[in-house]
Inverse folding.
């Protein structure tokens, strides 16, 4: 899913182009009818089965914006039986359309499978991905050089040039299987020197690509293959590598492997890594940089484990070994110990950039208050309270002042909007979304608005918003003043039934909205690498369990892409998490992200901490940020629903204390807009979920 912000380069405004068309007398095409959309859906389903049966169902769709998608779907299904003629005909009719580009790519992959290199080369265009780049090189390698009196019989294969053919690919730590024959040919032609092999091994090691390291190591000369395999072992089995490292020779590459093993083992078992470090530091002459990395990793992961000496180890790290992560974790460990003087010292040791983060401004004020320096604390909290963020809302609660939310509105501009709607690419994007093909819609959107100016993007987003395509605002209005378009960024989609479903499940609708917004950014087809699906990102097994427990129908994993189904099951699962943790939405949010079992472990270890300190001590950065994001979004959605908001402080109930749902008697905090300069929220780049195909991994260190 493309993320649009201000354009990176100057480009003609789509708005200006479309307005020019309008002034020239080109009227905006009529909105497609429900009957056309229904006919397209039927024909598209048929086309995806191949053949020409779809044509009878599409007789009245010749002028429908998505008509080209029908033939492309049929041809794609039939690729293994196709000769070149129908592909050429389609590419000629629709040379600039996304389905044509996809068809070319897919047919090229089929030609590569057939090893029809002659046809492949005549159709190939650069820029279609690494696999096809390597297939094109295979096609050249497969060429037969003609025989001559001097050369004798014909010879097979064309020579590769490393800089021309391989340098760009070589810089990537991982390549598709289609590149294996090309890399092998480069090796056979003597292009893969030891230096080039080691350069790529180092890049692969930095990217934790053990398979690539192991494969390349086999081609190293002399005794180097064993050294390369030690690096692969350090990536795959750091504990085993650290245990064996004492038998390795003290060579630069063995030291590299031992360092990688200790770094990775520290993440998993910090105390075991400590023990191996004590043994290996005398065996290897580690460089200063290697020592820095090892000491930094050991101190950091002792901190995330909250070991007794963690604070001392972090504070005593030599300056070259300190990183942003070790500096922040020094603060977190001090906060977990409620050692306020140590927390202040740790905050003082942060970089100037880190100190500006709202989290550390909040905790500096928190420490100052605990040390009796109330006036200093209030001076810090006053500007923080004017930011519409988790820590800004907490600061407002502490000072008992209104929440600062300063919305901007997007005024309608019908003439210019109609001009923009004349753009064929946007017409296809909106229509693809209307017929339930959001992935294709996002691609058309990205192509149509590539290089568009800010005014055009705003109009396009508002048009999408009014059509119920809500994720466009989240991924476009993601920094600066654009964050103040609250209506578009925090939509209230009543047609999906979230409010009544949340109320029926016994949870706060504003919290349910916040979870949905944080999980999927309103992309109904979102799917994570862990197979969580839909608006509220439910795993199929979890959804099936929730359905059984609540006596609800379960139609299988794909039903989670239906917003209504997803919200029914998602709100029930939220209620289940809330029930498990005394109704506390902040704890249930943490469980929703990290898993209830992991949260139970954290509660067993640190369950006596106040809520803000407990959140700060969560080992996973993703979960810390998730809880803060969800709880701030809940405040904003509460304001969107009610015009004011339940105080965040009342949502952050103490661990073990029962949470009561807000009702008409619950005190609510007013919302105001104190000053334009203070009203601009910080960038939300880190709070926008990954695109639907992406996934984030919990990591305790980052």
């Amino acid at each position: 899913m493309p993320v649009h912000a201000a354009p990176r380069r100057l480009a003609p405004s789509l708005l200006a182009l479309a307005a020019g068309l309008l002034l020239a007398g080109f009227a905006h095409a009529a909105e497609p009818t429900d009957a056309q959309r229904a006919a397209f859906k039927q024909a598209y389903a048929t086309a995806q089965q191949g053949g020409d049966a779809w044509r009878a169902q599409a007789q009245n769709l010749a002028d429908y914006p998505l008509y080209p998608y029908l033939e492309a779907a049929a041809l794609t299904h039939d690729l293994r039986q196709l000769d070149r003629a129908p592909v050429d005909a389609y590419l000629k009719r629709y040379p600039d359309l996304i389905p044509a580009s996809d068809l070319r790519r897919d047919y090229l992959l089929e030609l590569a499978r057939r090893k029809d290199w002659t046809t492949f080369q005549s159709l190939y265009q650069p820029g279609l991905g690494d696999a096809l780049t390597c297939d094109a090189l295979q096609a050249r390698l497969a060429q037969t050089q003609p025989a001559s009196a001097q050369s004798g019989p014909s010879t097979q294969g064309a020579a590769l040039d490393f800089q021309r053919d391989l340098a760009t690919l070589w810089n990537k730590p991982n390549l598709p299987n289609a590149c294996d024959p090309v890399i092998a040919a480069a090796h056979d032609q003597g292009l893969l020197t030891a230096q080039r092999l080691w350069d790529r091994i180092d890049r692969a090691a930095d990217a934790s690509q053990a398979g690539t390291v192991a494969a390349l190591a086999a081609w190293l000369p002399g005794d180097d293959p064993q050294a390369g395999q030690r690096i692969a072992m350090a990536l795959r089995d750091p504990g085993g590598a650290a245990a064996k490292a004492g038998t390795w020779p003290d060579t630069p590459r063995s030291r590299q492997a031992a360092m990688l093993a200790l770094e990775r083992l520290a993440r998993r078992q910090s105390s075991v890594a400590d023990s191996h470090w004590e043994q290996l530091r005398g065996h290897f002459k580690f460089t200063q940089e290697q020592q820095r990395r090892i000491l930094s990793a050991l101190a950091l992961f002792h901190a995330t484990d909250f070991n007794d000496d963690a604070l001392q180890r972090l504070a005593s790290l030599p300056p070259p070994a300190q990183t942003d992560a070790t500096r922040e974790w020094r603060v977190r460990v001090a906060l977990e110990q409620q050692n306020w003087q140590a927390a202040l010292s740790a905050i003082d040791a942060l970089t100037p950039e880190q100190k500006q983060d709202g989290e550390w401004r909040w905790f500096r004020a928190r420490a100052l208050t605990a040390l009796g320096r109330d006036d200093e604390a209030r001076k810090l909290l006053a500007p923080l309270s004017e930011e519409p963020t988790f820590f800004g809302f907490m600061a407002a609660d502490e000072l008992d002042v209104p929440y600062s939310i300063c919305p901007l509105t997007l005024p309608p501009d019908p003439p210019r909007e109609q001009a923009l709607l004349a753009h064929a690419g946007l017409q296809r994007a909106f229509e693809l979304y209307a017929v339930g093909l959001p992935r294709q819609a996002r691609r058309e959107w990205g192509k149509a608005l590539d290089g568009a100016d800010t005014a055009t993007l705003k109009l396009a987003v508002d048009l999408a918003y009014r059509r119920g395509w809500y994720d466009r605002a989240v991924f476009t209005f993601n920094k600066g003043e654009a964050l103040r378009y609250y209506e578009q960024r925090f939509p209230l989609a009543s047609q999906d039934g979230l409010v009544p479903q949340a109320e029926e499940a016994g949870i706060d609708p504003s919290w349910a909205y916040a979870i949905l917004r944080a999980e999927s950014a309103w992309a109904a087809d979102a799917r994570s690498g862990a197979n969580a699906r839909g608006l509220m990102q439910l795993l199929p097994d979890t959804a099936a369990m929730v359905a059984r427990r609540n006596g609800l129908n379960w139609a299988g994993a794909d039903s989670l892409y239906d917003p209504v189904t997803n919200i029914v099951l998602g709100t029930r699962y939220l209620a289940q998490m809330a029930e498990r943790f005394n109704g506390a939405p902040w704890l249930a949010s943490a469980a929703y992200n990290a898993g209830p079992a992991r949260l139970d472990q954290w509660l067993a270890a640190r369950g006596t901490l106040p809520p803000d300190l407990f959140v700060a001590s969560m080992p996973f950065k993703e979960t810390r940020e998730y809880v803060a994001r969800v709880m701030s979004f809940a405040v904003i959605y509460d304001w969107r629903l009610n015009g004011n908001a339940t105080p965040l402080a009342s949502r952050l109930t103490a661990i073990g204390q029962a949470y009561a749902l807000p009702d008409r008697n619950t005190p609510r905090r007013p919302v105001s807009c104190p000053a334009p300069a203070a009203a601009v929220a910080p960038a939300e780049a880190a709070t926008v979920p990954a695109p639907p195909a992406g996934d984030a991994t919990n990591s305790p260190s980052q």
Q: What stands out?
A: The chain has 40 helices and four strands.
